């Protein structure tokens, strides 16, 4: 890395960004050094975490909302954390194919991060990737993580808005949420609402939310029903994200307060 990658990245050089990301993945000392100058140019992007069990439709939903944000002229970074489990081994390729309709759009940058070999360092790598996309001037950074395993990244800690996706007929999921995710979630999405049981799940979730007394100045999680494959409910989801983005006093403290 003979020349300053940071300057190139700030100028919008996508290949420079990809190169630095590779360096981070390889744990290269020069790349880690370079990150220090990247940090000086971060804090502007809005980070949205999208999590949920394998196959709930995270990638399909991310793909759909990219289109809506792009119509608003917002630039997008997508980071798909791939657990590379035996069951989802093809996820990286799958995500690329799924989000292909955005591949020629210069306003969209998509990157997968394989978790294999990271162990404890995954959170750090994730944060670094987010910082690089932030320095690339992406307005919105969507981070897809699988929220079922034990070793998953706790994206809620870095996300400005945290979305948890559920699907009808997932009783276990609700149990998992009681165990803690509920504390950090901003938007609950019931995807595959075309399937039976969406109404039941919705009332279960509403019941859970009612157990807590929300103060008037406190954000109460929104529940949004979507059918990602049919692009249904996706406008409502983006509207909820943007509502949370401007909601006063909440977790939106990482940015530059440009409101
Ligand atoms: N019926 C129905 N199927 C959907 C919907 N959204 C997504 N799917 C399907 O669900 C499957 C999984 O979708 P993905 O977007 O890959 O799900 P994911 O959560 O990203 O999966 P992983 O990354 O492997 O955890 C695909 O076959 C989608 O076509 C929906 O609203 N309704
Ligand atoms: Mg996916």
UniProtKB/TrEMBL annotation:
Gene3D superfamilies: P-loop containing nucleotide triphosphate hydrolases. It holds the Pfam family MeaB. Keywords: Chaperone, GTP-binding, Hydrolase, Nucleotide-binding. The lineage of its organism: unclassified sequences, metagenomes, ecological metagenomes. Residues 44-188 form the AAA+ ATPase domain. Belongs to the SIMIBI class G3E GTPase family. ArgK/MeaB subfamily. It comes from marine sediment metagenome. This is AAA+ ATPase domain-containing protein. PANTHER family: LAO_AO TRANSPORT SYSTEM ATPASE, LYSINE/ARGININE/ORNITHINE TRANSPORT SYSTEM KINASE. One of its GO terms (molecular function) is GTPase activity. InterPro entries: AAA+_ATPase (IPR003593), GTPase/Isobutyryl-CoA_mutase (IPR052040), GTPase_ArgK (IPR005129), P-loop_NTPase (IPR027417). SMART domains: AAA.
């Amino acid at each position: 890395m003979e020349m300053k990658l940071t300057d190139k990245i700030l100028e919008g050089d996508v290949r420079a960004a990809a190169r630095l990301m590779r360096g981070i993945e390889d744990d290269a000392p020069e790349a880690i050094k370079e990150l220090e100058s990247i940090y000086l140019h971060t804090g502007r992007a809005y980070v949205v975490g999208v999590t949920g069990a394998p196959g709930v439709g995270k990638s399909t939903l991310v793909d759909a909302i990219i289109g809506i944000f792009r119509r608003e002229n917002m630039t997008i970074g997508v980071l798909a954390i791939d657990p590379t489990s035996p069951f989802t081994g093809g996820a990286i390729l799958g995500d690329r194919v799924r989000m292909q309709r955005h591949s020629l759009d210069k306003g969209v940058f998509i990157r997968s991060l394989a978790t294999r070999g990271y162990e404890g360092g995954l959170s750090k790598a994730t944060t670094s990737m987010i910082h690089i996309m932030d320095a690339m001037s992406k307005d919105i950074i969507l981070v897809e993580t699988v929220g079922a395993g034990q070793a998953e990244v706790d994206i809620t800690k870095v996300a400005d808005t945290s979305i948890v996706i559920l699907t009808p007929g997932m009783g276990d999921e609700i149990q998992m949420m009681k165990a803690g995710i509920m504390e950090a979630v901003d938007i609950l999405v019931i995807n595959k609402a075309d399937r039976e049981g969406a109404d039941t799940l919705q009332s279960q979730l509403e019941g859970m939310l009612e157990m807590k007394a929300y103060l008037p100045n406190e954000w109460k999680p929104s529940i949004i029903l979507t059918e990602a494959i049919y692009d249904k409910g996706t406008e409502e989801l983006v509207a909820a994200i943007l509502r949370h983005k401007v909601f006063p006093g909440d977790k939106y403290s990482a940015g530059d307060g440009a409101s």
